[in-house]
Amino acid sequence: MDNTPHWPTQDTLQAWRHDFHRHPETAFQEHRTSARVAQLLQSWGLQVHTGLAGTGIVAVLHGSRGAGPSIGLRADMDALHVHELNTCAHKSVHEGRMHACGHDGHTTMLLGAAQTLAAQPDFAGTVHFIFQPAEENEGGARAMMADGLFERFPMDAVYSLHNWPGLPVGSAAVHSTAVMAAFDIFDLTLTGQGCHAAMPHLGKDALLAACQLVTQLPALIAREQEVHKPAVLSITSFHAGDTYNVMPEAIKLRGTVRCFDMAQRARIEQRFRDAIAATCQLHGLTAELDYRVSYPATINHPVHAEVCAEVLAQVLGADKVHLDLKPSMASEDFSFMSQARPGVYIWMGNGEDSASLHNPQYDFNDQVLPWGVKYFVALVHALLRDGKLPASA
User: Residues with Cβ < 8 Å from 281, sequence gap 6 or more?
Assistant: First the structure.
């Protein structure tokens, strides 16, 4: 019996990826993408379940060696509201939307692994291929879980990856614990009393107060947080006034808070609220704050991360696997899944000359596609070879 994996060709992987890239769909709108993914999975004989969180898919594959553990492999499918500046033949056909984060590549790599494993399911146990909507800002992982992901499809562990610009193609990074930061967002409206710009004493200056907060709020990180616990508070939007001679009545600010430690996260939120209240009292303003706790920190399970590192060393070579890269202050909603089940989230190099993520000139590097397929397939074989998870996991 021939046990050599039947890998999809580079041309096949590239064709899938370019098709997804040409037709980007944003959070919870991935209808065409989801339909195409389901069509391919069904053509390979997998049990395909659609409609989780609207456009999410879970495909189930049982190993030919019988009963064993159950694991999940996850890829995200959504695009971003970004106007693409690339001129390639597979450029987005939808104005103002593009795959600027490589989810088209992630989906393609998981499809390649599903096809390969479906052709030769030489393992004991069950693999769930999770195609998730709405990773960007909207918490599609949380929505799939609320829709019964882990109850309908029991899993002992779950794994995912993300391409990483700056890392060479054919290399990867595995963190033993923290990978990506927690992510909170806020909308703040300060309301005072508008007046003529020549007579500011007749008003209550929300603009001045807002400017003070823009400089004071980041100090909650610079001067109040422990330096060995990284955190970032960023004001990313400031809307005020619309003419020369009127002091505006209301100012709108928005931004993000990111960190890894959950107790620290709570302290930052409280001090954030304290600073706003004090500033409003000083200037005689009112504040309307919508502070939304969004994604948790993405934290790898150490012993599972060790297994993933060993698999990557076999696939890429030990010298191509980085174990000491600093975590990123960016965020990832795979964190919801890895909170609920032991999980590992790795970075796979997209090339040292790759445009950064969320850049209008970003494009997933097609040379990475076979590496992702081989990693997922090798991971399944390593975890489910003998019908039980390795002792180290």
Answer: none
